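Give me the fold.
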Amino acid sequence: MKVSILIPVYNEFRTLPQVLERVRRAPLPPGCEREIIVVDDGSTDGTAALLAAAAVPGGAVVAHAAPCNRGKGAALRAGLALATGAIVVVQDGDLEYDPADYPALVAPILAGRADVVYGSRFLAGPPAGMARANRLANRILTAAANVLYAARLTDEATAYKAFRAPVLRRLDLRANRFGFCPEVTAKLRRLGFAIHEAPIRYSPRGIADGKKIRSRDGFAALAILLACRLLPRRACLAPPPPAARDARRSLAPVSRRAPAIAAPRSWRQ
């Protein structure tokens, strides 16, 4: 069973080497192999050069460079397009989340008990050092997700999320920045998927340490949760690829096709 680990990064030159080392050494359940996919979202601090070197040993890292900064959601879509694993795990490019928690995220999926697992920072108690504003924003977003979608979550905004790859690919994801989290939560619940939670460790960092999420992202996340509630259910589904659409047309019953009848000569004049 291959686990694809998607790491979107933007100007994470200082922390990325440590993150990659931790991800390479992180435990996985028996029988699992890892695929590390790093998407450089238009970094300007030397991250691209660092990735060029990191991608060499044994092909352990698949690196993709975006021409400009579009945001976490766009980077994750680019990474998902490259992923070949049956399970997809989202890993931030900083040191807030510990890859040693991968077994907690992946095990429920391997056991067939879950299609989606969120790593909750609050199941083991309030995380030390989290800013009061961030904690309040998380409570509001989690409450909104629970009320609007009956999600029963303790941590909607967690960055640690694991999915069965086919489930994630079923979603029509469009958010570019940090809206990935509320969008994926809303569309999973609209399609009837349960979200399992597992306790994880968390070491918060601040803006001075390179944290990029801002208050406007919290308001945008709330707007996405509200907007997705109003979408028709079919709008949450990704459109089928062109090959699938062509195959569907070719399998259409012949009886449904109107016969080709030439118009009378008098009509053509």
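Confidence is low (pLDDT under 50) at residues 250-269.
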